[in-house]
Design a protein that fits this description.
By secondary structure, the chain is an alpha+beta fold. Among the domains are: 67-135; 143-228, no CATH class. Helices cover 52% and strands 12% of the residues. Strands 1-2-3-4 form a 4-stranded antiparallel β-sheet, with helices on one face. Helix 2 (111-118) packs across helix 3 (120-127) and helix 6 (179-199) runs antiparallel to helix 7.
Length: 236
């Protein structure tokens, strides 16, 4: 028996605290497979664009001493067989054949005829008479400089993301990744993705295609978190 006034005696009117109810474990959120599908689709698109515009391998027997060079005229890429010999005055003489799919080879073209068909920029590039700028970037026309500019601008933007991240981290005295980091990565990566497709660089295409999806996904997650925080603050 319990003594009168004993707080443990339920007869004294003291309420018995309810038994603690164990909290339900948090639900595990479903893993999003959509970004992986988008990544695979972008990789497939990039690879297809690279190989779709590549000229087929030549099946033509080359002339002794000749070399094959890939050139671009406008939006068309082709392979040209170039043979350099010496003339009667020991001056270099060039002759050309345009190679195509299925073993196609044009007739042998001397330099004046080749220039009339393909243009002076392509002929200068193949005969060593092109400008230093063309040789440095391995291009055959001034129009290709637009794509070189796209690639250089993309690389500059892409490199600035680490500078932005470093400045923000120094100001906050901790390592952080600001939202601007992902936006800069997205724009720079998109520019490089287009440049590598034009260059037919499969390694660059693979490197940027997966990153573009990751950058976009992080931006989406940041905005979703902001909307959740706004609803929580408003009590909704």
């Amino acid at each position: 028996m319990t003594a009168p006034g004993d707080p443990s005696d339920p007869a004294d009117g003291a309420a018995t605290p309810p038994a603690a109810v164990p909290e339900a474990p948090p639900k595990r959120k479903r893993f999003k497979f959509e970004p992986l599908l988008a990544m695979a689709g972008l990789i497939f698109l990039g690879v297809w664009l690279v190989y779709a515009q590549r000229p087929a391998r030549t099946e033509v027997e080359l002339r002794p001493g000749a070399r094959v060079v890939k050139v671009q005229v406008g939006q068309t890429r082709a392979q040209v067989e170039v043979l350099r010999t010496k003339g009667a005055d020991e001056a270099p003489v060039h002759s050309f054949r345009v190679l195509g799919r299925g073993g196609f080879a044009s007739e042998v073209l001397d330099e004046p005829r080749f220039r009339a068909i393909m243009g002076d920029d392509v002929a200068d590039h193949l005969t060593g008479g092109s400008t230093v700028l063309f040789r440095a970037f391995n291009i055959t026309s001034w129009a290709s400089l637009v794509w070189i500019g796209v690639g250089l601008l993309g690389q500059l933007i892409f490199s600035c993301r680490f500078l932005i991240q470093w400045i923000v981290s120094e100001r906050r005295r901790q390592s952080v990744i600001p939202e601007a980091f992902w936006w800069i990565s997205l724009f720079g990566g998109a520019s490089l993705f287009l440049y590598f497709i034009w260059r037919q660089d499969i390694v660059g295409v693979l490197g940027q295609s997966s990153g573009l999806v990751i950058y976009g996904r992080n931006i989406r997650l940041i905005h979703k978190q902001r909307r959740r925080a706004a609803r929580h603050a408003s009590g909704v």
